[in-house]
Amino acid sequence: MTGKKVPVPPPPPPQAPKPPGVVPPKPPGVVPPPPPSSKISNAPAPPPLLGRGRGNATGPTKGRGIGLAQQSNPPKKASLKPLHWVKVTRAMQGSLWADAQKQGNQARAPDIDLSELESLFSTAVVTSTSEKGATRRGSAINKPEIVHLVDMRRANNCEIMLTKIKMPLPDMINAILALDTSVLDNDQVENLIKFCPTKEEIEMLKGYNGNKEMLGKCEQFFLELMKVPRVEAKLRVFAFRITFSTQVDELRTNLTTINDATKEVKESLKLRQIMQTILTLGNALNQGTARGSAVGFRLDSLLKLSDTRARNNKMTLMHYLCKISNCLSLELTKTDTTDNNARIFQIPQSFLLRKCLNFLIFDKDLIYLEAASKIQLKLLMEEMQAINKGLEKVEQELAASKVMALKSFLDAAEAEVRSLISLYAEVGRNADSLAQYFGEDPARCPFEQVTSILVIFVNMFKKSRDENARNAEAEKKKLEKEKEKASYLCEFQGLGAFVLISSENV
Questions:
Q1: Is 243 within the bounds of a domain?
Q2: CA max distance for the chain
Q3: In DSSP terms, which residues pair with 439 in a beta bridge?
């Protein structure tokens, strides 16, 4: 048997009794030396002993210990958040789902890392026992997780709103129930209206059977609001009560502005003279044509005065209107004779020689016109309707809640609204009368159009008036320079003659 390799039998198990004279085995993992009595010199070293808890990689047997415990108790799979889609159970013919079900057109499904999916979309954070022991040694209880039922973005905005109010929820609810305007202002009430729970959120909170103390701040706030009967309607009445005085004052101011603007336009004698002057100029320009001999003109014709230019292209009819509407000084009148004006526009000299009063500043009579032109009667009507509707909601809430604070508010508010209704009716009549004052049909030329045209005309008139003033000042300076130049020439010529005479005498 010398020279042949004989397989060495495996070492005996640790439980076997030790034969006499055998050296005790070394610790696991250390290769024991061959016994000295062995006659096999070329035999390979025996395989190392298997340690406890380690399995044989090549054999089917498993070691005992930790590895066995892990195999027998696999980790619990974390529950994933659902995707709330509408499932298609039957693919429509011609759709991509029907085409995908065909054997030749099946798209390859992507490989999904389930462990990554669980870590990203699990309903709760799963932490292993070893990790908890490593990070929080001595802590065996996990902190409970906050439950969020409301959309996270809406919940975050709600929490931000609550931090701005800075008031305990019970105090806030009591202020809402009592409609106490000394505790909550309009901005706070408007924010509360925005974050009233919807029907879906109310049903979701009612269906929650878990520990309500573990809900988020937004959910806790919604639960408190749900205790208030008709919470959204009550909050809207609350907001109406807070803003009622301001809303009524603004509406009254706008209505009064329209009345004042209408009155000042119709009572302005200067504006009446300007309109008459324009009519005279127009008939003079249109003499002998179909447009001549007019008894009046449409209001939008005021905007065309700047389109009619003089023959020398240096001035418009608007500039000329300003010129003849202004009482010029005697000195400036001599520099620009009426004959020249008559030739430019072919206007009878008898009209130009007529004295005209100082109507150049007729815009000073129209104090409220520009403010009135920015007011829309339709919006005023909508504001009146909103106030009436708000009073109806107050009456309904008073009947349901019996809050005495609403009773006194309602009595005073109804008196205010009655006076507003009377003022609104008066404004409607005056607005129509303004269009009729200029010969217009209120249905075709409403108040807003009348005031808009008048404001544009006034601004055009003022611009031409200022340009005339600048031109007159420039002309005056020019004449003064020419006068100085002529005087200088006369003095120079006189000095030359004196020198000539003196030289002759010498």
A1: no
A2: 173
A3: none
